[in-house]
Each structure stands twice: as C-alpha cells, then as structure tokens.
Design brief:
The protein is mainly α. The chain has helices spanning 2-24, 27-36, 41-63, 75-103, 110-142, 161-196. Helix content is 78%, strand content 0%.
C-alpha cells in the first residue's frame, strides 16, 4: 500500500513537472517573460537605479503638489506623482519577477507559473498606462512651454523652475528609455525566434 502511494505521488510530481515545463515552453509565455523580466545581475542593477529615479520623480511631484507652485499648469505635479508611483510599482514587479527567473531555473509549481504570468501581465498593463500617462504629461507640460515664467509667482504664467524643468527632463528621459527598451525587447524577441528556427 505504501509503495502504491509512493508510486502515485512520484507519478503526480512527474506529471506536474512535465505540465509546468510544457507551460513555460509555450512561445507566448516565453515572449511575455522576455518583454517583462531581466535575466542578469546587470539588469537588476539598472532596475534599482531606475527605482531611485522613480522615487525622485514621486518626491518632486509630492513636494510641489500645491497649485500655487505652478498655476500655469497645476496638473504637472499630479503627473509626476502618478508617474512616479506607477514607475515604482512597475520596477518593483520587474525586480521581483526577474529575481524569480534568475534564481529558479526550473519552475516546477503550477502556482508559481500562474504567479509569474500574472506579474508579467501587471508589468505590461503598467507600462501601457505609463506610456499613455506620459502623453498626458507631455501635453500639460509642452502646451505652456512658450508662456511659462519662473520669476513672478503672482502672475498666472508662473511655474516653479525646479518643478517645470524637472518635468521636461523627465519626459525626455522617459521617451528615450521607452524607445531603448522597445528596441532591446524587439531585438531579443527577433533573436529568440531566429534561434528557434
């Protein structure tokens, strides 16, 4: 009887390993992981540096959240707060997913596979939201570019110089990093598809 239970449990483990291995071998799952996780320590270091940048975006936005800091475009601080918060969320999810991928070479739990897929989907949804939010931030920031002034806070065209110029710089860096990230992921996907053929 004990031998029978032992054989059944070992066959269940083998079936679970096989089904999880086949789940991770699907092309869409691998592409999802390529699009959301890094697989190196250097990638994790870059994510930690981006976490510091995102925290500074959140701090600057929170510091200048009152509308009297920028009456010409009061939504700029809101843009920074939301962008910083969403970026922190995206980076923390990316770090967590990347650590799972780096540490666990062979994923044998169906629950872990489902968790990985859910985290990857959250990362993609957050990235899409951040891209759309950057468009709104660009509109709010660039529509007043010609009329903003930094010297007289009693006029409606005033905006705190640190807030406005930080937002402009953040937008430029965000678009450059987004383009580089898309280019890198596209190259990795193309390399993986060529390698499979």
């Amino acid at each position: 009887m004990e031998e029978e239970l032992s054989l059944q449990s070992s066959s269940n483990v083998a079936i679970n390993r096989q089904s999880n291995h086949s789940m991770m071998s699907y092309l869409w799952v691998r592409l999802l992981l390529i699009a959301t996780a890094v697989k190196s320590i250097l990638g994790l270091i870059i994510l930690f540096l981006l976490l510091i940048v995102s925290m500074s975006v959140l701090i600057i936005g929170s510091h200048f959240r009152d509308s009297h800091h920028c009456p010409i475009a009061p939504n700029i601080s809101l843009f920074l707060i939301v962008a910083g918060s969403a970026s922190v969320e995206w980076i923390i999810f990316s770090i967590f997913l990347s650590i799972i991928i780096i540490v666990l070479k062979h994923i044998q739990s169906l629950m872990l596979v489902v968790l990985i897929i859910l985290i990857a989907l959250m990362i993609i949804i957050t990235n899409v939201f951040l891209f759309i939010w950057a468009i709104f931030g660009s509109i709010w920031t660039l529509q007043v570019l010609d009329t903003v002034q930094y010297t007289n806070p009693h006029i409606n065209t005033f905006c705190q110089q640190t807030l406005y110029q930080f937002t402009l710089g953040y937008l430029v860096v965000a678009y450059i990093l987004s383009a580089l990230q898309c280019w890198y992921r596209l190259c990795v996907v193309m390399f993986c598809s060529i390698q499979e053929q």
